[in-house]
Structures are given as C-alpha cells and as structure tokens.
Design brief:
Ubiquitin-like (UB roll); 3 domains; binds adenosine-5'-diphosphate; binds magnesium ion
Amino acid sequence: MGDQKALGLGESILRLDEHPISEYFGCNTFNDAVARTRLSHSTYHSLKSMSAGGGALTPEMAQEIATAIKDWAMEQGATHFTHWFLPMTGVTAEKHDAFIFWDKNNPGSVIEMLSGSQLIQGEPDASSFPSGGLRATFEARGYTAWDPSSPVFIMGGPSGKTLCIPTAFVGYHGEALDHKVPLLHSMEFLSKASLDALKFFKHSAQRVVSVCGAEQEYFAVDLDLAQQRPDLMFANRTLQGARPPKGQELEDHYFGSIKDRVLGFMQDLELEALKLGIPVKTRHNEVAPNQFELAPIFEQANLASDHNQLLMELMKAIGERHGLAILLHEKPFAGINGSGKHCNWSLATDQGQNLLDPGKTPEQNLQFIYFLTATIKAIHRHGGLLRAAIASAANDHRLGANEAPPAIMSIFLGAQLSQVLNIFERGESKGTAGKGILSFGIPNLPNLEKDATDRNRTSPFAFTGNRFEFRAVGSSQPIAFPLMIINTAVAEALHELNHQVKQDEAQSGDILVSIIKVVQKTLSDTKSIRFEGNGYSDEWKQEAAQRGLPQAEDTVAALKIWEEPQVQSLFVNGGIFSTQELEARLHIRHEQYQKALNIEAQVLREMTETLLIPSILSDIGDKSQSIKYAMDAGQSTLTKESPIGQMIGRQVNLLNQAQSEVMKLRELLGRAENQSDMHARTEIFGRQVRPAMDQLRYTLDELEELTDATYWPIPKYRELLAPLS
Ligand code: ADP
Ligand code: MG
C-alpha cells in the first residue's frame, strides 16, 4: 500500500506509468491502510472483524467511522455520498446526497457531516426497482445496509466527486431485493459446510471463502457510428446487418497487437480501476474483430462481484472519453463471436490455502478429492439450475449456438484427473502408467499439469488445474448470481457428504476409511455429469439426452427449471431464499426476459418502418427512374427479364416481404401485450416474437445487399467492425 499523502489525490495521477502501480493501487478507496491510520485501535479492529463476517459496531464506533470516512472523502474532493447497490435489474443503483446539514450554531449556514446511521443504513425511494411482487409499491420501503467487507470508494464526475458506500438492499421485512444479499448468504453457507469437512482432515481453518476471477470480454466500436444505430443505442445489439466481406475468418485479431486508440482506452480504464483497488491484470485482443478481454486477479467472491460491476460502469464511461462505445452485450453482431465472462471459481481458507489445489501429501490429496467430488456432485444435481442462472434473452444467442459453451451443463476434468478419479473409485493401487496412485488406500496424486487440464474449450464448466472455470456466464451479466448458485449447490453437496461420512464413521470407526467409501460412491453416482469430448457436437446432444442431463435450449425452457422441487429445497434449506423470495426472483426473470425482447422487437419494428423501408423505396425509385431514362434513350435490352430488371424485381419482392413481416411482428407484440399469464407471455416472446424478428432480419439483411450503399441509412457491419485506428 503506498503513501497517499506523498502522492496526493488520486486525480493527480494521470498516467498508468507515472508511478509504480503498487504506490497508487486503491488510493481512491478507504482501504485497510487508511482505516488503520484514521481510526482508533479498538474501532479499527471491530471494523476488521465485522468485515470478516463477525461482530457488530456500537453506535459510537459507527459515528467514528462515518466521520473518518467523510473527512477522508472531503480531502479527496467529494461533496456527496451515495449508497451503492445492485438491485435485481443487474445494473448498479445510486442516489446521491450532499454531506451538508444546517449548522445549528450559524443560522443559514451549512456544515458537512456524515452520521453513523447514514453510513450504515439508507432508505432510497426504491419503489420502482423490480421486486417481483415482494413489495407492493404503497409500502415501497427498501433499505440499503452498509457492507463493510467491500471498501467505500470515490467516483469522479465531470465536475465533482461522490463517495460510494457499497451496500446490500433489503425490504422492510429483511427480504433480499438485490444480488448481494443472497451471495453473502451463500458464502456463509459454503463456509460452514467447508469447515465441517475440514475438521475431518484436522484442518485448523476458521473460515472458507469462495473466490472468483472474472474474465470480461467486450467489443469496442466507434461511438459516432454506434450512435447512428437505434438498435445499438436502445437494445445494445445490432438487430439487422449483413455480414461484412471479411469477418473473423482469418482469426488474425486474436492476441494480435493492440491498436493505439484501444490501448489508450485500456490504459485509462486500468488506471482508474487500479485507483479503485480493482486488481486488473490481463488485457488482450479476442477472436472477433474489435473484441477484447480484460481480467483481474481473483478475489473473494463478493469483492469480485462489486469490482466487476464497477468495472463494467467504468468501461462505458471511459470508452466514451475515447470516442468508443463499449458493447457488453452477449451478441452484438450476428455471425461474429459473442462475448462471455469466464468465472474462475475456487475455495480458499482464511490461511490462504486453495482447497481445489491438489496437495503435496496423500492426506492433502484426499482433502482435494473430497472438495472436488462435492463440486462434481453439486453440478450433477444442479446443472439445470446453473443453466437457468445464466439464461437471458441476450445469452440465448451464445449458449448452444456453436461457438460458445453448449447449453448442456457438464464437467470437464482432463484425462489425467479423470483417470485418477476412476482409479480411486475402483480402489485400485496403480494407474495405467504403472505409477502408484493410491498408497494405503489414500490418493498419491501425480503433479497435475495445467496443460493437461486446460485443453477442452468446449466445456461450460472445466477444471483448470486449481479452480473451475464456468464459461457460460454472459458478458453483461452480474456474476453475483451464478456465483451464488455455485456456492449454494456446492455447500449443499458438502453438507450431504459430511453427513454420510459421519454416519459411516459411527460404524467403521475410521474417518479415512469412511471418507474414501463416501467419495467412491459419490464418484460412481455422479459420472453422468463428466464429459471429456467435444461439447459442440451433435453426438454430445444425443449422448447427454441418453444420460438424462437437462437440456434447456433457451430461456423459455430454462426458466421452468426454477420451479422444480430440488431448486426450492436447495435455496430454502440453505437459508438463501424463502419460498416467496424465490417466487419473486422467478417473476423478475420472466419480466426481464419479456422486456428485453419487447424492446428489441419495438426497436426493430421502428427501424424497419421509419428508416430501412423508406430508404430501400427511395433506392428502388431511383433505379427505376434510371432505367426509364435508359429505355427512353433507346436501351431496349433493359426489360423486366434482363438481369438488371430481375434484380430490381427481387428487391421489390423482398421489400413487400419485409413489410408483411413487420406487420406480423406488430400483431405478435399485440398478442403478447394482451396475454396476462406470465408463463404464456414468456412463451409468446420466446417462441413467436423471437423467430419473427429473426425472419424479418434475414429479409432485411438480404435487402441491404441489394440496396445502394449510399442510401443505407445506418452504419454497416463493415464500418462498425473496421479496425479502430
Ligand atoms: P485463461 O485465459 O487461461 O483462462 P486468464 O489469466 O485470462 O487465464 O484468467 C484466469 C483468471 O483466473 C484470472 O482472473 C485469475 O486471477 C483467475 N484465477 C487464478 N487462480 C484462481 C483460483 N485459484 N481461483 C479463482 N480464480 C483464479
Ligand atoms: Mg479463461
């Protein structure tokens, strides 16, 4: 941690290379080092233990912390504060308040203040955040509650700064109204189950946390061009666009050198992110033209979630400064790779041990296999839910669409680890290579090479040496939600395994024997979820069906999984959601799906009716005029049957077709609007509106290729995807 006094304010650092990163990392946050210097010894320690999930603050301590934070924030130039939270829209919410209060001693004057209760609890008038019916708007009170495990930070604006206090958002009766509360609950559930398991191995850990490193993919396109496209502005993706002459066929963009304009954006973004304590580390070009990736170092899951949310906001804002529109949508361009967010997930003890790291001793290896088996069991039981967790209108364009992870959840372990598990399951003592794998019945693992585990890019949930990589998460999605599902499912699995081991031990009298027995049985029971082959192939679809793995081909199908009994019991027993909270989440997911498709369909309809059809008509008019002139001038070869005549005929036919398709779309939207049943409306949007949009788009794309480019009223793919120089 650097000396911020010496450096002054975070804003005085204007370039990434002005100082070593270690000197300014986190300088815009009230981090541990600042807290230590500005708080009394006892308050600092209370805050620390509270951040780690224990203890509470007295009102006096809360006031001391609030004043220290306010003083620090004002020194950095902040005038306002906001509780910063992640409602179920998935987009962070803020409501800013100035620090000012009337000065009792000086009528008409104000003083700056932040009270302990303002720090700890807020009451945004949040009636219009989605609550899925949990809160009728007439009792719209929702509370934001400070989350001390995530440091407060300062965000700059064009002419002022705001202190942001990360908070959880709960309803009047404590119902979770955001993504953070369930994530924190799931971490608690997982920590308990893991600690129970660790006791078998005489491990002295006090706490286990789930950690995540989220690799964020995105597109960057020229902002001026993007602003000319209503679809990009309102639906975040192109709803029409003929393929460019050169797409990603050459794959010359992947890991290529980064062009200056984009590099400048990345460097500014990283500078601001680093000042906010976001440990951004890796940047590179992705496969598609103008597609890039940014990855931070992994962190505790709730911090990783806050940071990813913050990063997505920063990306858009800083992109604009560089004249770039940053597209976080899962599929901005048809026919070009989409964007995901690989969530690298593992478990770490408070002593810093990664529980998914194969150990050095046989006992450590057994412990590793125990946690690995629990994860396999979790995905085996809740693969469908994991699929449902990342289902959205946008992610439907990726999943199962032959480029990104398939929509069928399976686990990839790599040949080496698979072999070890198979041998372990059978209780054999030697692998095919003749190496001793089990000694005295407990595993003696060979060194697992990362290379040996990281070959299969077609798996949605792959073991990569010391963690799992969940690759199906969409680029724009909050990671809190899928992380919560993984944590909860693994906690449930651990809980069951722990229970079985204890029961068995009562008979066997030997904990190791019981652990081995339970793991062997679990490995054998959960085999169907393990798959080492090509996840994109049609054979896999058939095989997965034979194995009985759930296959939800789109969001409409995936949403049904939420209503299955094992999902209910998972969340209710894990203390994550009540039945009502779960029902509310389901409502919100239906609503968001319907809204997303409704916006897309309305934008496409309007674009077609008011921009594209009129332009195509003008073009046809012009062409017809030219032909008439030519014919008048004696060019009698220009008949209806001539190639030119046929080309115009085709354009006219397609235009008629587009017009009737847009009318069909209108009719379907009306039908959806009149449907009051939630499930039926989702079905209309997914199974009727969506195909109708695809059909119209297909016609328009063909028309684009027949229409005079100077008449085309919106920027084309070839312009949007041209190298950014
Ligand atoms: P790759 O592209 O090969 O997957 P990257 O370096 O782009 O690798 O991203 C890997 C991500 O995984 C980084 O965010 C990294 O911090 C994270 N990571 C590394 N080890 C762990 C771990 N034990 N648990 C969770 N995440 C991890
Ligand atoms: Mg990766």
